[in-house]
Amino acid sequence: MFIISCSIYGVTNEALLAPDPHALEILGWSDARKIKNNWHLHRWFMPIFLHGHLEHIIGNLSGQLFMGAGIEHGIGFWSFVLLYMLTGLGGNLLSCCIKPESYSVGASTAVFGLVGYLVAYIITNW
Predict the structure, then answer these.
(1) Diameter of the chain by CA atoms?
(2) What's the rounded Cα separation, in Å, for the pair 74 and 34?
(3) Spatial separation of the C-alpha atoms in residues 47 and 29, rounded to whole Å
(4) Using one digit for the tens of pLDDT, what is the confidence trace for 19-42?
(5) How many CB atoms within 10 Å of residue 125?
(6) Residue 41: which of 109, 98, 92 has the closest Cα?
């Protein structure tokens, strides 16, 4: 998705390999007004697959690989996919409720969901 978003309108000079914001809007960045008023429900899960620039995707991938590999090994592939998607959807919903005037992209909500799962696992199995 990052390559697709960079190739639609090209890249901007805001950050290293940052896709044009119009491309992210077309692909479905999180926009609370469009979700509420126009029923664009795909904007709850599409931001999980979109990223703002190269450092953003590298940071998200690092978190996913560091925590996700161990969690997936422990709970299984399908449970991990369910956990990842639900925490991403929940984080995007929370983001839309707290700051509805902003737009957002990135898998950070899902990565923070993995952090929450890992902390809960450590506390319950201490």
Answers:
(1) 50
(2) 38
(3) 5
(4) 988 888 899 888 888 888 889 888
(5) 6
(6) 92
In this structure, are residues 51 and 94 in contact, taking their beta carbons and an 8 Å threshold?
A: no
Q: Say which amino acid occupies 49.
A: F
pTM of this structure: 0.86
Per-residue tokens: 75: 């709970």
Q: How confident is the model at residue 117 (pLDDT cuts 50, 70, 90)?
A: very high
Distance in angstroms (rounded) separating the CA atoms of residues 108 and 55: 12
Lowest mean pLDDT of 1-5, 72-76, 81-85, name the range. Answer: 1-5
Measured in degrees and rounded to the nearest 5, phi and psi for residue 11 equal: -110, 155
Please answer whether residues 42 and 55 qualify as being in contact, where contact means their C-beta atoms are separated by less than 8 angstroms: no
DSSP-based three-state secondary structure for 49: helix
- What gap in Å lies between CA 25 and CA 22, rounded to an integer? 5
